[in-house]
Automatic annotation (TrEMBL):
<protein>
    <submittedName>
        <fullName>Carbon-nitrogen hydrolase</fullName>
    </submittedName>
</protein>
<dbReference type="InterPro" id="IPR003010">
    <property type="entry name" value="C-N_Hydrolase"/>
</dbReference>
<comment type="similarity">
    <text>Belongs to the carbon-nitrogen hydrolase superfamily. Nitrilase family.</text>
</comment>
<keyword id="KW-0378">Hydrolase</keyword>
<dbReference type="InterPro" id="IPR044149">
    <property type="entry name" value="Nitrilases_CHs"/>
</dbReference>
<feature type="domain" description="CN hydrolase">
    <location>
        <begin position="6"/>
        <end position="289"/>
    </location>
</feature>
<dbReference type="GO" id="GO:0016787">
    <property type="term" value="F:hydrolase activity"/>
</dbReference>
<dbReference type="Pfam" id="PF00795">
    <property type="entry name" value="CN_hydrolase"/>
</dbReference>
<dbReference type="InterPro" id="IPR036526">
    <property type="entry name" value="C-N_Hydrolase_sf"/>
</dbReference>
Amino acid sequence: MTDQKVKVGAMHAAPIYMKKIETLQKVVSLIEEAGKQNVELLVFPEVFVPGFPYFLNSYAPPAQVSAIIEYGRQSVVVSASGGDLAGVREVCKAAKVGIVLGVSQRVKGGHQLFNSLVFIDSAGTLLGTHRKLQPTYAERYIWSQGSGHTLRTYGFDRSESEGFTVGGLCCWENTMNLARQSLIESGHQILAAAWPALSTTEGFEAVADIQIEALAKNHALTAQVFVICASNYVDEACLEWLDKNIGPQTHLEVGGGWSAIVHPFCKLIAGPVRGKEGGDQIVTSEVNLNDLDLVKVYIDANGHFKRPEILKMQKDSKPLWEDDEIAATPALK
């Protein structure tokens, strides 16, 4: 049997906070670096562009209005014909790296925002965009709810061997069991789990990393997939932006983030990398998709280990928003 080995990476890094253009330039350089390391699939943290809106949990709602306006201005327009990601797509093709990139997505010509994962293959093709189904807690100040239409998996082709299938979930969307089951029944082999920094947020210091690791391992085993967990960390520039643009706060500190790659039998095969120690780094590992065959002898959540006559999976895949079809399958539009 021929090994189906894929070198994958979790991007543990901080954005150029609240600066879309500069962060996209950083994304380009990070993809170039991944290409030099022969990474075929690179997963970025949640809303890496323009950075996670940490102000949501650090200030009273009226104090955030100007920050939310600016966040919309710094959000990313995703378009099959170009948009803000044209340069990113070009470098994916040049470096031969497929990516899952977390962005705050702004609807073209409008003000509506989504917490999104953008899937781009190593040919630079925009495969599609997943929009987080349910913004968490105060995130609802900013982002709309995503639809089941964008809850799907994408195939990444390879020139010399069989390709692989990737699904993605954002942050606590990983707690939504039926969202996970929907991806399982779509047949993904790799999950891109995108996170912000949580362990330096007040109230989460002792539990955030435990939660992220538990959710990654849970999905790895129950879905029988590899999980690439990518988190950002909070840097000094982020705190300086908050202080300068909104005011002093005591709810967030420098650091945080938990990035790793998990085998379907729950073993950590790369990482974890935590906090800002060592700065930006790509957590890499070679994964062999043939390992899925062994795991599925024991449990196959999309086959012999499910009881569809007892436990029924139902998903509403209809588009909810006007541009959902374009977001989910831009190549067909």
